Amino acid sequence: MNFKHKYFFLFPGLFVLIGILIFPIIFVVRLSLSGWNSYNPGLDYIGLENYIRLFTDDPRFWESFFRLSFLSVTTVILQYVIGFALAHMVWKDIKFKRFFRVLFLVPMMTTPVIMTVIWRTFFHESLGPVNDMLSIFGVAPKWLTDPVIAKFTVIIVEVWQWTPFMFLLLLAGLLSLPKEPFLAAAIDGASPVRKFIYVTFPLMAPISIGAIIIRLIEASKIMDTVYVLTSGGPGTSTETSSFYIFIKGLREFQMGYAASMSFTYLIIMIISLTIIAKVLTKVLLKE
Amino acid sequence: MDLVANNLSYKPDDQYHLNEVSFNFKEGNLYTILGRTLSGKTTLLKTIAGLVTPDSGEIEFDGKNFLKVPVWERNVAMVYQQFINYPHLNVFENIAFPLKQRKIDQSIINEKVMDALKSVGLVGFENRKIQELSGGQQQRVSLARSLVKNAKILLLDEPLVNLDYKLREQLREEFKNLFSKGLADETILIYSTTDPRETMELNGEVIVLDEGKVLQVGPAKEIFENPNSLKVAEISNDPPMNIIEAKISDNQIRFEGIDVEAPQHLSKLTEDGLKIGLRSSDIELNENGHEFEVELAEISGSETLLHLKRGDTKIIVSIEEVLNFKIHDKVKINFKINRAYAFHADGKLASSPFGGLNG
What we know:
The complex is a heterodimer of chains A (287) and B (359). With 287 residues, chain A is mostly helical. Chain A contains 13 helices and no strands. Chain A is globular, with a radius of gyration of 24 Å. Chain B is of the alpha+beta class. In chain B, 23% of the residues lie in helices and 34% in strands. A six-stranded mixed beta sheet of chain B has the order 6-7-8-3-9-10, sandwiched between helices. A four-stranded antiparallel beta sheet of chain B has the order 2-1-4-5, covered by helices on one side. Chain A binds chain B through residues 178, 180-181, 183-192, 194-195, 198-199, 202-203, 205, and chain B through 49-51, 70-78, 80, 82, 84-89, 97-98, 100-102, 142, 145, 149.
């Protein structure tokens, strides 16, 4: 066989890979070693100065990182629990099954930014319908301006927006399960609750791991919700890593420094997601 | 503790899966449900297990209304024709599953599982994954799982049908050993099958089921010797019994220009529309016999099945030898006519060589 033309056929894929993945990463690494900012644009070389600043003199980055960890882990856990419950519900033979299956997917079909604007209106402290209703009980939480409550507002909106995705993955998983073990389990004396714990859940473990990892990757990029809902406020209490990097890079135009943060963030995410995937596999699959 | 059913009916679509089925199963006995595919065997077993709720009728077990007891509290065990196990558990965990559903001490569980493994011959496999086992081994795991819980009712739904010939023989032997080992002392064993040979070998009480209806109940020998209708004769013989439309007059059975002297038990039947039933094994090749044409010759195992034709009459002959025939070959056969059955035009048994009715 003649392989003379193989580079010709490899080229399109290779071009895309180099153009949109490898080059940007290398460029970001180079950029992070420069002092590129609005006064001094250009790829000069300042060594590890940006990294030294990041690790010794920028608690705001690390705070935003831990806030991000908290937000993404909490939202994904909630999405998983709620998504699993909904999927399990419409997996069984219930009335209007098809209607519910479509209904639960509606939030995913909406535009996140626009939905967040609507949520912001909902949660408006003096004009929003939420506080209007809560006024019956005589309470008016500061949904968007209390440092603690604002975090939970972000969580509520994120969970609402992305639970359908989890629901979809888990429902597909449930529908692909073999029916036989469930017949066997009932006859073997497992009540519905035990059937869930000992059969449904373990059989769903591989799909669950996949769904959780996909959602964790997605959730760690959380940005649009925060941007529209609170703009990171009050203060920096809902600021996440990506939002902070965005501020440093595209608002204050400290490109070099933002690049070093991006690269550090990328490394941390790769390491932590790998560890999470390994741990989940060990716990859920017992392997 | 008896399992009694009264007029069970189940009709999920326009066809009866169960049609007024009644029975009275006593503990310590083996019952075989014999029927063709789609005759309602699986539905009946599922109804007993609680996986199917009948439209009407009652089931009582130990004097209590069984239909009100949820599946997981019924204490039944079931082996399916597909090998059903838990794919996420290993062999040991699979067998231990029913025990883990009750609060039983781990050491007792270990002991019982090892016993069950021993009785199905799978010692040493306890840490294997289910997918790594062969079909026969998987079926033995599910058998062990059904044995381990000491269920009062053990349901076996065509457990051998998806296995290859050799394994089937081997497992059937193991079943017989298990059943005779006193396992069945306080258990009601219900075994469903399409295979008449299996029914005869297990030698229990037989319920013949067709289109959801019970056609005949009786010991295996009785079903074999005196099938009460044409349908039962067809279902309880493999290959199905040959049915020949014939006339009896002057002590002669006449069909297709053949005259055979009627044996004593058939000689008094002179009505119209009589059907003579003869098992394929009760016809033999004979140089001086009657000439038939070969339509098809199939070799199954060590026997040859000859599909023969003469005029409008078609019969199947089984010969315990491997023989080669070509289509349209002429063969000569003889009827062991004293083993013939006679059925009325409506399909009811008229006379059998074993003394049924007029015989």
